Structure formats: C-alpha cells, structure tokens
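Let's practice the habit of predicting before peeking. Look at the sequence and jot down your guess about where helices and strands might fall. Then scroll down.
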Amino acid sequence: MPTRINIEHWRGDTFNRTLTIKDSDGVVVDITGWTFLAQVREAPGESVVATITVSITDAPNGEVNLLISAANTAAVAVGTYRYDVQATKADAGSTVETVLRGAFVIVDDTSRS
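Done guessing? Here is the structure:
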C-alpha cells in the first residue's frame, strides 16, 4: 500500500514539499531514472483540478520536490480532493507504483491582494 498523507493547504499559496521515497522497510530508495505523475482530483476518474510538478532533487537519496504554483492553487475551489503520486521505475518492465496518496484539502485564505 502507498503511504497515506492527508494535506491541508491554503488556497492561493504555493505548495512546495520535499518527499523522500523509501521501501516498505523504511530504507531510502535510489530513484535514478524514475519518472513521476501526480494529480489532484475531486475523486478518482474526475477531472484534474491541479497537477503536482514532481522534480527529482537527489536521486541516489530518493528525494523529490512536489510543487503547485500559487496561481494554480488559487484556481482550485475550497474543498476536499484526492491526490496521489505515481512512480514509473527504471526497471526492465517500467513498473508503475503509487508511492503516496491521500486527501488534499484546500482551505480559504484570509489575506488577499
């Protein structure tokens, strides 16, 4: 099962987090050559409300950066959504595995320009 982390994020703020990929024993995984896809949706099969840009920052140490711009989070209505992060491994079969999932809650911010 993928790790489940629920996220609460303020609408109109930049979403920027670092994630370290580990195996089921908690050992860091070398993600050299891997690619990632991450999306936020109202529910599985529904339209994408935000795409999470995943950038590998330190492949030998399993680190990636997850990013949604402030402009993109501002375009998402306040509410509870679902997200996941899928990895395509650099193995012979190009194995696809969901490494992270959970709720993605957008809350309304108070300050606005």
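How did you do? The chain has a mean pLDDT of 94.
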